[in-house]
Amino acid sequence: MSPFGSKKNRSLSVRVSTFDSELEFKLEPRASGQDLFDLVCRTIGLRESWYFGLQYVDTRSNVSWLKMDKRVRDQRVDLQANNNTYVFSFYAKFFPENVSEELIQEITQHLFFLQVKQSILSMDIYCRPEASVLLASYAVHVQYGPYDYETYKDGMLAGGELLPKGVTDQYQMTPEMWEERIKTWYMDHEPMTRDEVEMEYLKIAQDLDMYGVNYFPITNKNKTKLWLGVTAVGLNIYDERDKLTPKTTFQWNEIRHVSFDDKKFTIRLVDAKVSNFIFHSQDLHINKMILDLCEGNHDLYMRRRKSDTMEIQQMKAQAKEEKQRRHIERKKFIREKKLREKAEHERYELEKSLEHLQNEMRMANDALRRSEETKELYFEKSRVNEEQMQLTECKANHFKTEMDRLRERQMKIEREKHDLEKKIRDADFYVHQLTVENDKREAETEKLRKELICAKMAEREATALLLNFLNSGRKSSTDSLLAAANVHVTQSNNAASSLAAVSTPSLATSSSTNDIDTAGGAELTTHYLAQGDNSSGISDDFEPKEFILTDNEMEQITNEMERNHLEYLRKSKKQVQNQLQTLRSEIAPHKIEENQSNLDILSEAQLKAGENKYSTLKKLKSGCTKARVAFFEEL
């Protein structure tokens, strides 16, 4: 047997990645692209398969779509980087014109939601910052369900990728600030099922300028670099620096035939009077992709304008029945939820009342305990006051006794003072008398001194006479002379005695006065010492410290959480625009101008001009086809 036989019969390993799952298959070697695509659709339960395709990277590192009519192994899938495993990505290849009218299955909506969300986060689809916040709130709703204040925790949204990096870099805002604004929108959404939220997301996303547009670099006859945008409604031509606002457009109903020759692409228009629409691409691979997308979008465009096939009618009928069933179940669920919320509210109110009563009981017990403590403190204070009163009474009695003693001592001192004053008066009177007598005696002393002098002179004279007498007549005159001498001597002695007597009373008077002063000083000293003893015996009055009873005020915090169940109607575009304008005004002060990209600047200019995706296309379609072709060629 040839060694290649077993190799041909070996099955193919295939891995298909969707946005929420990884699928692995074993295919027969002769399996075609359509076989693999049908297998994937059956596995995930997808019936609206005409929007999707299998994308892969070929051996030249070009992104390509799997051809349905060729075998899988014959298409140049790069196997070197995947260990001989065929790796494909299941993506939406074509986009509907109106998601709410065309998408039928939930799985279809979900796959579109995941792909569009990823394109916005990766900035393949430009989205204004305020619209990014709104879409992020819907993405959170899809992930976590309706907002529930009991389960929502601050920081819960910080872990996920919710906003494009270009948006967060453009504003000087913390993740907490972005989360707060996303949370505001999230709280505003009514409770919806996942498919309803995803549909709301897609309805907003389809209004973005770059939604559903596949861009390819081309040039016109003037070699001007342009972008060709293949969309669900036609072909758009964009300036090289502006992917938001098309320069001109051609709808599929204006195009008859699309073909290419090498790098030259030719588009024949329905109007035979108009020349062909010709442009050039970079290589043949791009032309193949453009042709493939043009054919698919053109077929879907024409199919939408025809009556639905039986398959689609059946799908829509089933989807309608399913929606009605879900609507009934949802009403039932809402009714049961309201009853449960009512019961929970009543339970909450009862628990709140119970908690309030328990708090009141606890407060009453605390008040009773504080009253008991206060009572004990008052009893203790009363006992201390009684002891203080007894001590005060003892001190008062002591003070009274001491006052009586001091009063008696004061009276005694007063009497002694009175006696002393009397003695002093008597002493003064006596001193006065002694002074008068002393003056008299001094006069007498002076008189006696003079007499003594006279007596001494007489004595000397007598002595002289005596001597003379002795000499002359000693005998006869001796007796007379002795008598005269005796008289003079007696007089002298009397004068000396008088002088001594006068001096002695004066000295006695001085001694008596000193004794009186000493006695008086001793009495006064005793008096003041007694007063000093009196002052030292008086103690300070007892002042009992005042007792202040402080009760800790307990604040009763009642969290009245009222969940206002407002009937929510689907927001019209005007309401959404008003909310977006409000958010735009809120975050405008945090904008960092130098971090703005070219698309941000173009979007701001478009917003100021009051233009949007639909108004621009409407304006471009207003001219005739010939004029638009001529405009393209002159670019």
UniProtKB/TrEMBL annotation:
GO terms for biological process: cell-cell signaling; endocytic recycling; endocytosis; epithelial structure maintenance; hippo signaling; male meiosis cytokinesis; meiotic chromosome separation; negative regulation of glial cell proliferation. It is found in: Cell junction, Adherens junction; Cell membrane; Cell projection, Rhabdomere; Cytoplasm, Cytoskeleton. It holds the Pfam family ERM_helical. It is a peripheral membrane protein. PROSITE patterns: FERM_3. Residues 305-451 form a coiled coil. Keywords: Cell junction, Cell membrane, Cell projection, Coiled coil, Cytoplasm, Cytoskeleton, Membrane. A 1,2-diacyl-sn-glycero-3-phospho-(1D-myo-inositol) binds at K67, M68, D69, K70, K288. InterPro entries: Band_41_domain, ERM, ERM_C_dom, ERM_FERM_C, ERM_helical, Ez/rad/moesin-like, FERM/acyl-CoA-bd_prot_sf, FERM_2. Residues 12-305 form the FERM domain. One of its GO terms (cellular component) is rhabdomere. Signal peptide: none annotated. It comes from the Eukaryota. CDD domains: FERM_B-lobe, FERM_C_ERM, FERM_F1_ERM_like. One of its GO terms (molecular function) is actin binding. This is FERM domain-containing protein. It comes from Drosophila ananassae (Fruit fly).
